Inverse folding.
């Protein structure tokens, strides 16, 4: 994915373009309608497999160890020990464990993602956040998930938000930059829409709903607002920016609804791991259980699936 250019406007004088106001009632109603779409068996199995390939299999706990990350990477490579299944899109870990993950997924298509910029709060000076991004980039991260400065955004300091994200994008080098808006703290859909545009103007390769540490995290209406912002940005610039809902998506059924929403809002070009991811730590096993149910008419016992 080619990073959006920021050359058209000085980061020092950046002013966000006018973005459409969001009709909250209409957004909720459309998201609700999309959630009712019927998916036939063959298409459902294909959707479940595609979701596995779009997963960022994540562990972001204070008790994470190299052993836990190695186990996670094994699960990422071979999600179902009893049947062939796609590998996941990426494993996402804290910065000190990037090198462990890098070693474990070597020779596969699985990306290594790391959170950075003082995740999840982002409460550090910009030079410290930039330094952490550079550190995980140099450790071998393919993708870097950073947090937007919500204090600056909510204070109306949009130029500062743009300048900071631009600096993080530059620091990430060839690694893809996913910018977390933390939508649960943005208060309105209009704010979500504006934050999405600023992040994309500043060079985000993906925009992401949440850290998973704040509730509400990903919701269908918020994700729809962000997808529509991506659509409008693509129409304005020709650039294709990815989307990552994260936090609270634990079951296959709602995950399929997100896939339907992406298809109907952005089209098939976004139905790839390069442009759509789901951040999850517990979704994978339910996807595997549902695939087995569609194949055989019965569920696996969970004891046949690893807990990692």
């Amino acid at each position: 994915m080619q990073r959006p250019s920021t050359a058209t406007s000085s980061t020092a004088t950046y002013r966000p373009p006018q973005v459409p106001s969001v009709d909250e009632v209409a957004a909720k109603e459309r998201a609700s309608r999309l959630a009712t779409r019927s998916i036939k068996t063959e298409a459902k199995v294909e959707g479940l497999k595609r979701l596995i390939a779009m997963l960022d299999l994540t562990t972001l706990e204070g008790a994470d160890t190299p052993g836990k990350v190695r186990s996670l990477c094994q699960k990422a490579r071979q999600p179902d020990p009893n049947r062939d299944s796609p590998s996941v899109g990426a494993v996402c870990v804290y910065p000190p464990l990037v090198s462990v993950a890098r070693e474990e997924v070597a020779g596969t298509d699985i990306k290594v993602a790391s959170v950075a910029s003082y995740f999840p709060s982002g409460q550090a000076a910009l030079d410290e956040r930039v330094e952490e991004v550079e550190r995980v980039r140099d450790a071998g991260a393919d993708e870097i998930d950073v947090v937007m400065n919500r204090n600056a955004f909510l204070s109306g300091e949009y130029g500062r938000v743009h300048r900071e994200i631009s600096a993080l994008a530059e620091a990430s080098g060839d690694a893809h930059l996913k910018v977390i808006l933390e939508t649960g703290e943005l208060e309105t859909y209009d704010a979500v829409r504006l934050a999405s545009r600023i992040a994309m103007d500043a060079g985000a390769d993906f925009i992401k709903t949440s850290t998973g540490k704040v509730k509400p995290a990903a919701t269908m209406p918020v994700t729809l607002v962000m997808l529509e912002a991506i659509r409008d940005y693509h129409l304005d610039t020709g650039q294709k920016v990815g989307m990552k809902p994260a936090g609270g998506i634990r079951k296959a059924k709602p995950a399929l609804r997100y896939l339907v929403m992406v298809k109907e809002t952005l089209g098939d070009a976004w139905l790839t791991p390069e442009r759509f991811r789901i951040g999850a730590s517990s979704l994978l096993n339910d996807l595997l259980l549902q695939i087995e149910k569609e194949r055989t008419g019965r569920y696996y016992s969970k004891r046949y699936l690893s807990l990692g």
